[in-house]
Amino acid sequence: MRYYVLDRGDPLSVELSQTFHKLAAEQGLELDAKSPDIVVSIGGDGTMLHAFHTFIDQISSIAFVGIHTGHLGFYADWKADEIPELVQMMSGHSDPGLLRPRIVRYPLIELELQKKSGASSHICLNEFTLKGVDGTVVAQVDINDQMFEMFRGDGICVSTPSGSTAYNKSLGGAMIHPTIEALQITEIASINNRVFRTLGSPLVLPKHHHCDIYSRKEQNLLLTIDHVNLPMNDMVSVRCQVSDRKISFVRYRPFPFWNRVRNAFLD
Ligand code: NAP
Ligand code: MN
């Protein structure tokens, strides 16, 4: 079993990652930064976003585990004091008292960015947002190659089911269970008048549907993919859809999504 640990960099996370390495060495786990089987993120949900993007090229062969050092997270759902159990589970010791790990797989969004200066592909775990830098965004939104609406406002957010509890939630989007392969489009402060008319409600697209967002004026835009900001002044369009790739997480005890939602927002 090859593993890698990525921590948030604060003193507690650094200390926990040292503890992890010590225990892992005792159990004969092999530290491998190049092609790990399991990537452990220690910190918060934001740390998992980092881990995901660090290993984006290998996500089909990696399972992620998140340990939280503050509040319980959506991706970081292991407690610090469970590290010994986690290491033991990863080393495959057949302790009958230990539950067998389960792998859960969550949908991702892929996007194709077209700029006058070239094209690129990206994947998001939470969401991507498109925002104006100098003013409002003017963009045409097409769904499955048909014009849907002309948007003007602060921006547009397109989120995954597991990202629905993040930025999407602040925008009034719905919480989507990650077994549902879908993407959700939410508006960020749209202007509605005779020229610009938008639906005003979040939209959920199933797999195999796609959405194109075309820049409709000369504008400086900020494309944010999870935590990564990509400023641009020559965007032509972004096409997005549910990806064929998924992210895998290791679970060794059930922790239903709705319990995490209640835990984070209601308890
Ligand atoms: P950040 O500004 O430190 O994160 C914002 C908050 O979002 C943190 O509390 C983070 O948890 C939490 N979070 C991240 N993923 C989540 C998820 N899937 N479900 C519920 N909460 C989640 O920046 P960051 O840590 O780099 O995270 C980037 C994310 O921040 C973006 O993907 C976006 O979703 C979110 N964001 C939200 C708003 C908003 O709600 N107005 C604005 C910008 C960005 P941790 O503290 O555990 O890291
Ligand atoms: Mn954060």
From TrEMBL:
Q: What is its EC number?
A: 2.7.1.23
What molecular functions are annotated in GO for this chain? ATP binding; metal ion binding; NAD binding; NAD+ kinase activity
Give the highest taxon in the source lineage: Bacteria
Which Gene Ontology biological process is one annotated for this entry?
Answer: NADP+ biosynthetic process
> One cellular component GO annotation, for this chain's record?
cytoplasm
Q: Where does NAD(+) bind?
A: D45, G46, H50, N126, E127, R152, D154, T165, A166, Y167, N168, K169, S170, A189
Q: Which residues form the active site?
A: D45
Q: Which cofactor does it need?
A: a divalent metal cation
Main location, first listed in the record: cytoplasm
- Tell me the compartments it is located in: Cytoplasm
Any one Pfam family match given in the protein's UniProt record, by short name:
NAD_kinase_C
**Which reaction is this enzyme known to catalyze?**
NAD(+) + ATP = ADP + NADP(+) + H(+)
Keyword line = ATP-binding, Cytoplasm, Kinase, NAD, NADP, Nucleotide-binding, Transferase
Q: Which SUPFAM superfamilies match?
A: NAD kinase/diacylglycerol kinase-like
The record's comment on protein family reads: Belongs to the NAD kinase family.
* Role according to the record: Involved in the regulation of the intracellular balance of NAD and NADP, and is a key enzyme in the biosynthesis of NADP. Catalyzes specifically the phosphorylation on 2'-hydroxyl of the adenosine moiety of NAD to yield NADP.
Q: What HAMAP family is this protein classified in?
A: NAD_kinase
Q: Which NCBIfam families match?
A: PRK04885.1
User: What is the protein's name according to its record?
Assistant: NAD kinase
Origin species, per record, is Paenibacillus mellifer
